[in-house]
Amino acid sequence: MDATPHIAMSGVSLTGIEKSYGSRTVLAGINMELAQGELVCLLGPSGCGKTTLLRILAGFETPSKGKIVLNGVDVTRLPPNKRRMGMVFQAYSLFPNMTALQNVRFGPRVRGAGNAASQTAEAERLLAMVGLAAHVQKFPHQLSGGQQQRVALARALAVKPDILLLDEPLSALDAKVRTQLRSEIRRIQKETGITTVFVTHDQEEALSISDRVAVMNEGHVLQIAAPAAIYREPANAFVARFIGAGGVLQGRTEGQGVRAGSVLLNATAAGALPLGTDVEVFLRPEHVTLHESEAAGAIRARVDEQTFFGSLTRIKLGLHDVPQGEIWADIPSDRAARYTPGAAVWASWLPDSPRVLAR
Amino acid sequence: MNKRLSLFNWTIILLGVVFFFVPLIVTGIFSLWQGGNRYGFSAYALLLNTPGFWASLFLSFRLAVETIALSFFLLVPSMIFVHLKAQWLKPLFEFISNLPFVIPAIALIDGLTTLYTGPSWLISTPNYLVIPYVFLALPYAYRSMDVGLTTLDVKTLTEAGQSLGAGWGRIIFWVLLPNLKAALVGATLLTLTIVMGEFTFASVLLFHTFAVFINDTGQNAITEAAALSLFSFLITWLFMLGVLVTGRRNPASLGGAH
């Protein structure tokens, strides 16, 4: 038995995928290419269509329009049991009447891959890979939620799938187990080199685990890019608002800045847009610096509230001279005591920090 | 307060025991009566040698087995289908499953004899009874299986099986049925209990089942009828005990210690 698994490398291509239920469109014109060995997260709010897209990939739903090509083969109309896809579900999906070992052996058994001895050896190897060598004979009800999802992962890998589909596999777990298991999923995914689609509504999870993140809303993929690019250069207002925290200010471009109320906000990116364009300015909290007295380029603000995050404290600022304006600033918690609610402060940022998007 | 409540509870339990057990004890004593002051097991010995006893017992048992087989053949795939693909049909299933409670047996027989007029291997043999028995056992078999299927996350388990390459046959026989064992055993035992004690259909349609045998015997030999009644109770209790034992086992659980 090899030390490393032989899982077929493959690419996935989604072209013009649409899905409608009656007059309700759930997915609209999804085009996506997944490279071999890539982990792509589908990220978006509830009801954005990410799970439907995953279920279409798995074969549990049929697209109203469009084509799915896996490894060069059109699998759009292929039933799920004929596709080589491994899936881990959000709900615990282990077969309750089978031990962990029997669960992992199930796929190779039904596919007739190898004999009983080789299937058992492979199942034991995969269970060892997910850290459950000591639990092979346990039934699902004897395992914790995290352990059950590890078994489900091993079971999905046992069929040597062309693509691994993970449907919010960590959402039922507590925070500590979730963080630990997502690191292990990433490690195993890299070890096996298997193309993976991971559905989540947790942006921290998506940003930390993916090669690329596809941000979805209302049935559309709004942006698909590397996590850092999604965070730093959101393609539109929805992505900017959905990913990370930050303040949003509205105004009009004026040279290398944005006029908001009586204040000219520093924003180099505004220079790329025509003068007088209605825009939104997005400012990440880590880019905002607070001053206790007036400083060059800083605008007047008022501390509205503090949120303690351990090493950092996030401070919400109300802006005096900008209508409906509020921004956030992250500061080290040991400096937070001086910024009590109601205190007058000045906020500044580097001119190239804000993202400026036309409204 | 607790002591008074406890006393009240014990009183209720005692009344229940008296209500249920005194008739049985009296029936038991009567079944042992051999005239005058003599008591013994002659009624039981006579019973076992009465022509028709074993034949009627085996006939009822065979009909129960056939009823169970036909019920499962009809119910298992259709109920899995409803749970998986057509939840909107569930109220209709509920309604149909409750019909035997509201349609009088005699109306059922009338409808049955009008509807089923052939073939002869069916209508002229006791096998004919399997049709009304399936209908009669439907509420209990349906309820038991519905509870089992609701407890199980059928959709997720089915999709997990499909994603691993399993077809419908393997999903049903390897995954779903083993996890519905308690529900199926419960449905089996309830159906057995109903069929073994069913009298109206068999009597009207002139088939000599165990319940009909008890009735006929009771008209000629009263101590034997008492012994038969106790024997019948014993069979029913054994089946109900089976239902309780299987029901107390935890149904297949998808959750775990988190």
The tally of beta strands of chain A, per DSSP, is 20
What's the structural domain tally of chain B?
1
- What number is the mean pLDDT of chain B? 85
Rounded radius of gyration of chain B (Å): 23 Å
The quaternary organization reads as heterodimer
- Average pLDDT confidence of chain A is 89
Strand order of the largest sheet of chain A: 6-7-8-3-9-10
Number of strands of chain B: 0
Largest sheet of chain B: none
Radius of gyration of chain A: 25 Å
How much helical structure, as a percent, in the residues of chain A? 10-25%
CATH architecture of chain B: Orthogonal Bundle
State the helix count of chain A: 8
Sheet bearing the most strands of chain A, described? 6 strands, mixed
Global geometry of chain B: globular
Shape of chain A: elongated
Distance between the termini of chain B: 39 Å
At the first level of CATH, the class of chain B is: Mainly Alpha
- Kindly state the percentage of residues in helix of chain B: over 70%
Structural class assignment of chain A: alpha+beta
For the structure shown, list the relevant keywords.
heterodimer, A: 359 residues, alpha+beta, six-stranded mixed sheet, five-stranded antiparallel sheet, 20 strands, 24% helix, 33% strand, disordered N terminus, B: 258 residues, mainly alpha, MetI-like fold, 79% helix
Describe this structure in words.
The complex is a heterodimer of chains A (359) and B (258). By secondary structure, chain A is of the alpha+beta class. Chain A is 24% helix and 33% strand. A six-stranded mixed β-sheet of chain A has the order 6-7-8-3-9-10, with helices on both faces. In chain A, strands 13-12-11-14-20 form a five-stranded antiparallel β-sheet. In chain A, strands 15-19-16-17-18 form a five-stranded antiparallel β-sheet, with no helix packed on it. In chain A, strand 9 and strand 10 (220-225) form a beta hairpin. In chain A, helix 2 (100-111) packs across helix 3 (116-129) and helix 2 (100-111) runs parallel beside helix 4 (145-158). Chain A is elongated, with a radius of gyration of 25 Å. Residues 1-9 of chain A have low confidence and may be disordered. Chain B is globular and about 75 Å long. Chain B has a single domain (51-246), classed as MetI-like (MetI-like fold). With 258 residues, chain B is mainly α. In chain B, helix 3 crosses helix 7 and helix 7 runs antiparallel to helix 10 (181-197). Classes of the chains: A alpha+beta (359), B mainly alpha (258). Chains A and B meet through strand 6, helix 2 and helix 4 of A and helix 8 and helix 9 of B.
